[in-house]
């Protein structure tokens, strides 16, 4: 990723950085939130209270997809937003630790999700100091988290054990205890059905092959399998494919929650949570 990271910078570069820092002191505390999915990159700008003050912009991902491609999309969307911001929140699929991409499952593949891994893409993405690079490039603080974690910040109440699952290109997962984010676990890559992971059974590709009815039953089976692992007090289901869960299975899920899990109904959350959680993620 092209960022101003050279040890020596010209006087003009230093002046530009100082000017950007001065401008940031005068701007409202808006947050640019970027939701990175396997099929598209979405962004919006939120005000201090977390209200969306721009239109939501989505750009399809064209594979192969590099870190420079992501940067180009973010820059393009910023120009379209035409609003100032003082910080950036990015939700990225995979394992993100302290702003570093430890592993991301989709962008390392030549043709997108569930295709062959490309070694050059894998080297470009895994280990990428994404938060540091974006912060240097845009001269504002940047926080990079797993995309399900950003969505979770939009909805959690900060009470008890709260599990947020998102259904989209794959399965996203975030777990909070008394409002504190637990260490991220890539449940999506754990074994589920014989020879298949949760991602492979619940992801978009599987839904297209199975159809919504059979896929919905797999979602219910997955929740039953995950209950002994998390024993949540409240479960939230979100992501772009959650509205496609059939009514019959939604009824089963709520009955399961009320009887086995001993809680109220499952809370179904809007897919916009992937961007609207971008402010609360800072607190």
From TrEMBL:
Question: Is Transferase one of the keywords UniProt gives this record?
Answer: yes
PANTHER family, per the entry: BIFUNCTIONAL UDP-N-ACETYLGLUCOSAMINE 2-EPIMERASE_N-ACETYLMANNOSAMINE KINASE, ROK (REPRESSOR, ORF, KINASE) FAMILY
User: What does the UniProt keyword field contain?
Assistant: Transferase
Q: Read off the SUPFAM superfamilies from this record.
A: Actin-like ATPase domain
Q: Which family does it belong to?
A: Belongs to the ROK (NagC/XylR) family.
Q: Which Pfam families match?
A: ROK
**Enzyme Commission number(s):** 2.7.1.63
At the highest ranks, the source species' classification is: Bacteria, Bacillati, Actinomycetota, Actinomycetes, Actinomycetales
Q: Which Gene3D superfamilies does this one have?
A: 3.30.420.40
Name the source's superkingdom. Answer: Bacteria
UniProt GO molecular function: polyphosphate-glucose phosphotransferase activity
Q: What is this protein called?
A: Polyphosphate glucokinase
């Amino acid at each position: 990723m092209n960022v101003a990271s050279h040890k020596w910078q010209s006087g003009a570069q230093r002046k530009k950085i100082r000017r950007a820092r001065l401008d940031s002191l005068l701007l409202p505390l808006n947050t640019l939130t970027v939701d990175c999915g396997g099929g598209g990159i979405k962004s919006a700008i939120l005000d201090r209270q977390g209200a969306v003050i721009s239109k939501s912009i989505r750009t399809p991902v064209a594979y192969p997809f590099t870190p420079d491609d992501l940067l180009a999309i973010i820059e393009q969307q910023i120009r379209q937003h035409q609003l100032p911001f003082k910080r950036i929140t990015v939700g990225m699929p995979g394992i993100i630790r302290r702003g570093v991409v430890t592993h991301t499952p989709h962008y390392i593949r030549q043709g997108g999700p569930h295709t062959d891994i490309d070694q050059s893409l894998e080297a470009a993405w895994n280990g990428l100091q994404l938060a540091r690079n974006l912060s240097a490039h845009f001269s504002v603080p940047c926080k990079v988290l797993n995309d399900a974690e950003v969505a979770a910040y939009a909805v959690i109440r900060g009470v008890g054990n709260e599990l947020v699952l998102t259904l989209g290109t794959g399965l996203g997962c975030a777990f909070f205890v008394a409002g504190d984010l637990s260490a991220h676990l890539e449940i999506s890559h754990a074994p589920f059905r014989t020879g298949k992971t949760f991602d492979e059974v619940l992801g978009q590709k599987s839904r297209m092959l199975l159809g919504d009815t059979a896929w919905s039953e797999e979602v219910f089976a997955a929740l039953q399998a995950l209950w002994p692992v998390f024993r949540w007090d409240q479960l939230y289901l979100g992501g772009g494919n959650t509205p496609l869960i059939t009514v019959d299975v939604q009824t089963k899920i709520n009955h399961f929650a009320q009887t086995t899990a001993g809680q109220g109904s499952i809370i179904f959350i809007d897919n916009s949570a992937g961007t609207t959680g971008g402010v609360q993620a800072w607190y």
